[in-house]
Amino acid sequence: MNDFKKIDLEVDINIFVFIYQVIEIVKPSGCLFPDPLEEGISFDIYSAFIEPPPTLDTEMKGLDQEPGPEASQPEDDTSDTDPLVGFTIEDIKSVLDQVTDDILIGIQTEINEKLQIQEEAFNARIEKLKKA
Fold it and tell me: Which of 61-65, 69-73, 94-98, 111-115 has the highest mean pLDDT?
């Protein structure tokens, strides 16, 4: 019976070692989305208490844009109004393009770093084989 427990424990340990060494954990994507452990929190609470304050670059971009005819109308703070009322389709498309570009650049740099590490490892192996 002890042999069975010992083998079972070794199998469990090997599974955990495999999980933590081979399977990649998703990294947070930055300030655009909440961290994985904070996903259970509603967005209102996250944005009010947890989210870091916006940088000066985003504030300056908002000030540089000219207010359109939609922005000159008084806004109501009721929950019945659509939050996208003051924006045009072009505004939304440009923001979505910007967000996807930021995400894709992050993914691309991460992939390039991993490929470079693998290339260096393969080159080291090739050099060892040449010396042998």
Answer: 111-115
Contact 85, 73 (CB under 8 A): no
pTM of the model: 0.34
What's at 66, amino acid-wise?
E
Using the CB atoms, write b or e for 74-99: b if 16+ within 10 Å. eeeeeeeeeeeebeeeeeeeeeeeee
Name the residue ranges covered by the structural domains of the chain. 1-65, 83-132
Write out the DSSP string of 25-76.
PPPP--TTS--GGGTTS-HHHIIIIISPPPPHHHHHHHHHSPP-TTTTSPPP
